């Protein structure tokens, strides 16, 4: 087997540097996420565990990206030793497994985070349905990896008798399902945020935070398009952009999942800015009167990671179901267990 200089091609060098920076930024985001948890004295929950799992798999993908460059990425298959080519195709199997693990764990982190703050039964059921779809996405991806070629060894040895389905079609189909699940997850909180009894500015800010996932969806679309152009007859040369976006997408998804948790860190770093914003907000909400003021609970978010941390149906609402803000940072299961024993 022959090894090559990973920085020999400028495009490979630039992509490796870009992905290394993205993974480093995502790592910092996770650190800030846990610093925020410590500031708020919040318990580690499943959303945190899932995002750590996604990050660990992303490290593996970045390492494999470097190794792809080391064994001949961006060279034509005719220029490489047979051993290098076989390794590239074998690594592709592992690469897919790691990628799908990254993405499904990031999705589960989003959904478990939603369950921290949206505790209505209807939303809980919707989140569980999305979890089922994410699990189906992962299962379908795994089946595709191990069933697309019969026998399995034909993945890296095309001379064997047997059959392989179109990998371009398989990757594009699974990528489309990945996109659909992302859009469904992003759409979940839209209605609930609109029903919040809070200022329009706060609603827009929340839409902005949760809407960052649209950027990830754009990356997913780009990756799907790139996968359709991969020539598996000359994989070492044609895989370059697919390899790049397959690392960038989960790294950005992890960063996006951590952004809503960073408020306590920024508040600690820039207390004057947040104090000014809170004073303006308090004067605005203090002007409300009557039934609206009775239904609205002022946001005392001194240590909150969002302008809200826990949403429940407002008992003072009329025929429509609005939501009021509570300041607990507990999971739905913790709230239900307390109610069962008669705690407030």
UniProtKB/TrEMBL annotation:
Is the Phosphoprotein keyword given for this protein? Answer: no
Q: Which GO terms describe its cellular component?
A: membrane
**In what ranges is there compositional bias, type Basic and acidic residues?**
327-344
Superkingdom of this protein's organism:
Eukaryota
A Pfam match? Fung_rhodopsin
Q: Where in the cell is it found?
A: Membrane
Membrane-spanning parts: 16-36, 48-68, 88-113, 125-148, 168-192, 204-226, 238-259
Every copy of the Rhodopsin domain together lies at 32-267
InterPro entries for this protein = Rhodopsin_dom_fungi (IPR049326), SAT4-like (IPR052337)
Enumerate the UniProt keywords alphabetically: Membrane, Transmembrane, Transmembrane helix
Question: What's its membrane topology?
Answer: Multi-pass membrane protein
Chain residue ranges for the region called Disordered: 305-344
For this chain, the family text in UniProt reads: Belongs to the SAT4 family.
**Protein's recorded name:** Integral membrane protein
Which species expresses this protein natively?
Answer: Aspergillus homomorphus (strain CBS 101889)
